[in-house]
Fold this protein.
Amino acid sequence: MRHQTPPPPSEEAIPAEQLAALVDELPPALQPPPPLPSVVIIGRPNVGKSTLFNKLIGRRQAIVGDEPGITRDRRYGVVEWLGRSFELADTGGIVPDEEAIIPANIFKQASFAIEGAALLLWVVDAREGVTPLDEEVARFLRATGKPVFVVANKVESESVRAAAGEFYRFGFDALFPVSAEHGSGAAELLDDILAFTNAPVAAPPPPERIRVAVIGRPNVGKSSLVNAILGEERVIVSPIAGTTRDAIDTDLVHNGRAFTLIDTAGIRRKGRTTAMAEKFSVIMARKALERADVAILILDAIEGPTHLDEVIAGYVLESGASILIALNKWDLVEKGADTAKRYERQLRERVKFLDYAPAVFISALTGQRVTRLLDLAARAYKARYLRIPTGELNRFFAECLETPRATLPTKAPVKVHYVTQARSVPPTFVLFTNSTKKLHFSYIRYVENRLRENFDFFATPLRIVSRPRISKRQPKAVAPA
């Protein structure tokens, strides 16, 4: 019997009630996962909404700058914290015009996000204090009927923290003094969001392909490296700096693992980016970093590390990607007994913040060690998705880290009671202490190094969050009549 071609789907949509009934009849294994609770960031321009968004999702996704009104549309991301997750939306700033303090069309985009929100985060500027526009925003938020957490941003001193208390007068559900730029107060905010929204357990599957971005300044051999790995000229190569304008994705399989190589445009110094095409290349290269699992930073072994290389390395660190450092053109370097050690010592001195990133001496021209980069990328990929069970983590902490090394900037002792991994990609750990003060940076660095050694967080940045004891929150104020 011949198989008949199925008829085309009807143009008439299935009613929502009927579709829901069909979904309910599916066996449990085929049931779609419940939607994540949605948390929406709202506020007037230039109060730090996008900076808070980037801090909470753990990666630089939203564009951040000092110019008001940069965010014109909605941006979404998934926040994973303490093994649970929720959806976070960043909305555009509320801008007044001549006719009304809050014109209705300003909320056209934000209203879609607010409608399905489980919680609103109203970001205000604690340094500036309450403004007339804040008064109008508060009235709008009350009219939505949604629960609201007030996030008093830019709290970098105790005096500003005290001044932030004036926002209690609006009578919303809670007030959180934070510094989105430095991360202080973010852990407490995330804890309360999880509790309030009853966020479900997070189980994000890692992507099937290992996404590797090849990045560096112009003419260091990025496209030549991609071609050497692929074994063919898949990307245009030229001695003229700046041949690659866009990020180019190429798929391949190496030792049974699937990779996507992302060849990026060279990043130039700001003074060299006068042409719009060059500026666009810089933006695209940074966007490629945001979607990469591993970045290969290419340096010119003949010239050695430069200040621009250091700047680009900072971009990689900020993105949260794992990183490998490849010193290209090694075949052209005159070598002695300790040449490699001398080069690596010079490199480590220049980019001290990437001391965990392995350095590989390669030649894209001859193919020397180029495939080894893929083997190392696979190891780094495994490390960035590694999750340590809380019990194992605390046993390790008791055996290796429970010493009087945890000190405050005042040298006063502080006890770390508990440690847990809050998220992966990049791996983030929370240390719960008996103090309201932050742990000293030297101890944070000590913990990071021991974690890396004992659990093989190879070539992968780690985030360490000090979670101090929370002082009793001020009672919620009654909203003014």
Remarks:
- Residues 336 and 453 are 31 Å apart (CA to CA).
